[in-house]
Write a sequence for this structure.
């Protein structure tokens, strides 16, 4: 079935350079958080076609076990770490387990939680803030603080799988999600130069809407243009070998520029949108 025209224009299909990717990942140990479903799952399948040791981190052991069998069938190794990264103790347990694996070459921070809820529906739901912040910000910070010495020894790489909206103006109803993703993005970018000094390569990829389980509960996205998870995985794989530190959609410059030039108009639109939907 042919993809809608908007998706073909916004998310043109890409392919990896097999030779370059093989050179970048063969023989490497690659840790992927949020590996059981969606982008992480597709990325692990893609990387398993090469000679890799994939370390899978996620909550769902059954899904990871099935994925591990597919990885091994493709000729690569798989290690499973079951962890609920909402819990700080689980993040510490992840670090303890990673310390036993040996050299770690690439860490792909992919686990995340999305939430869309208006302010007036959030007044008694402080847990939305703490849970979203734990997974999107505090857990990856905790893990990277622990992994930095290991990645320094291997002269490794970190890839932050982020969201395009952290580069754009704030959006109504998205406070918990956008704040937590932006917090980690800022922390990550603040450390870029220091990681480079240690010999660690840090890269960020900013995704628009992707067709994952995360967006399924929101009926507003049923017919919205979105990227396929396989294409998202390809873009991460390409970033591993590409000589650049940031990847984002070709059209991202337009909303970024509009946000810089027209913030007052955006604020007016946001107020109008909220007023219309709350009346």
């Amino acid at each position: 079935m042919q993809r809608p025209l908007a998706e073909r224009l916004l998310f043109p299909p890409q392919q990896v350079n097999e030779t370059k990717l093989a050179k970048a990942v063969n023989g490497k140990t690659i840790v992927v958080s949020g590996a059981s479903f969606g982008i992480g799952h597709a990325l692990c399948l893609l990387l398993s076609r090469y000679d890799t040791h994939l370390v899978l981190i996620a909550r769902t052991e059954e899904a990871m076990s099935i994925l591990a069998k597919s990885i091994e069938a493709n000729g690569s190794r798989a290690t499973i770490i079951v962890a609920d990264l909402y819990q700080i103790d689980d993040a510490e347990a992840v670090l303890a387990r990673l310390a036993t694996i040996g050299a770690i070459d690439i860490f792909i921070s992919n686990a995340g939680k999305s939430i869309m809820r208006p302010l007036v529906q959030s007044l008694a739901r402080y847990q939305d803030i703490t849970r979203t912040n734990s997974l999107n910000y505090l857990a990856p910070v905790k893990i990277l603080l622990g992994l930095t010495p290991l990645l320094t020894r291997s002269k490794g790489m970190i890839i932050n799988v982020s969201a395009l909206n952290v580069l754009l103006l704030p959006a109504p109803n998205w406070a918990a999600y956008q704040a937590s993703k932006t917090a980690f993005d800022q922390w990550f970018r603040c450390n870029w130069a220091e990681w480079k000094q240690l010999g660690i390569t840090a890269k960020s990829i900013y995704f628009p809407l992707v067709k994952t389980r995360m967006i399924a509960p929101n009926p507003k996205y049923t017919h919205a243009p979105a990227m396929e998870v396989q294409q998202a995985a390809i873009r991460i794989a390409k970033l591993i070998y590409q000589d650049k530190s940031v990847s984002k959609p070709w059209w991202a410059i337009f909303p970024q520029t509009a946000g810089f030039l027209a913030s007052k108009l955006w604020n007016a639109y946001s107020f109008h949108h909220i007023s219309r939907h709350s009346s």
